[in-house]
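Researcher: Structure for this, please.
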Amino acid sequence: MKIAEIGNIIEFKNGLQGVVEKVNENSVIVDLTYMENYRDFELEEKTVINHKNYKIIKESIHV
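Model: Predicted structure, C-alpha cell format:
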C-alpha cells in the first residue's frame, strides 16, 4: 500500500476526490474543495481518510 503525500489527489468513497493537505500515521487530511461540485454533496471542506480507504489518482509534482 502506497501512502499519499501532501499535494496528491486521492479518490475515496464512491468517487469522491480531494487534495492531501496533511499526512498522519494512519490517515490523511483531505481538502474536498478540489471537486468543483463538492457543495452538491453537502460535505465539510476537509475530511480525514484512513490510508486503507483511498487510492492515489495523481501524484504531486515536487519542485
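Researcher: Any notable elements?
Model: The chain is about 0% helix and 45% strand. The CA atoms of residues 1 and 13 lie 17 Å apart.
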